[in-house]
Amino acid sequence: MIDIGLSKMALIGVVALIVVGPEKLPRVARTVGTLLGKAQRYVADVKSEVNRSMELDELRKMKDTVEGAARDVEQSIHTSAEEFQRNLTQATDDAHAAYLAGAESAVVPAYRNPGKNWRLKRGAMPQWYKSRAGVRTKAQSGAARVARYRPQKFH
């Protein structure tokens, strides 16, 4: 920028006092001050606008890179899903063909209903009901049961 020292400022002030005159100098100085303030604000606005546009360009570049990475991931997932679907279709076709080839010789057992199993019914009861009804929940061997409920000897 312009290097203005104290001696140059004094020289400008003396020239301005001679040219403008002592009665108009304060008004001219105020006008020059307001114009310089407006110029500084304008320069600051231009700088901030340039900075914003640079940041916007950087953000656009970043957005483009992120979108590209997302497209790559989506494409790889899509190809993996297609490959998995092809493999699954092939495996089911092979299994179906093997089943049809062995269907003449193999006999598939028919479904048999398990019937009413009292152990399954007992297992379906809630624990609070079992404890209230006095249902044994833990298996005990006969010897352990005898030892537990043996009457005490009186001495």
TrEMBL record:
GO annotation (BP), single: protein transport by the Tat complex
Gene3D superfamilies (UniProt xref): 1.20.5.3310
Keywords tagged on the record: Cell inner membrane, Cell membrane, Membrane, Protein transport, Translocation, Transmembrane, Transmembrane helix, Transport
A molecular function GO annotation: protein transmembrane transporter activity
Name this polypeptide is given: Sec-independent protein translocase protein TatB
Membrane-topology annotation of the record: Single-pass membrane protein
Coiled coil: none
Cellular location(s): Cell membrane; Membrane
Its biological purpose: Part of the twin-arginine translocation (Tat) system that transports large folded proteins containing a characteristic twin-arginine motif in their signal peptide across membranes. Together with TatC, TatB is part of a receptor directly interacting with Tat signal peptides. TatB may form an oligomeric binding site that transiently accommodates folded Tat precursor proteins before their translocation.
Residues annotated as signal peptide: none
Species for this entry: Simplicispira hankyongi
Family: Belongs to the TatB family.
Quaternary structure annotation from Swiss-Prot or TrEMBL: The Tat system comprises two distinct complexes: a TatABC complex, containing multiple copies of TatA, TatB and TatC subunits, and a separate TatA complex, containing only TatA subunits. Substrates initially bind to the TatABC complex, which probably triggers association of the separate TatA complex to form the active translocon.
Annotated GO CC locations: TAT protein transport complex
Record bears the keyword Electron transport: no
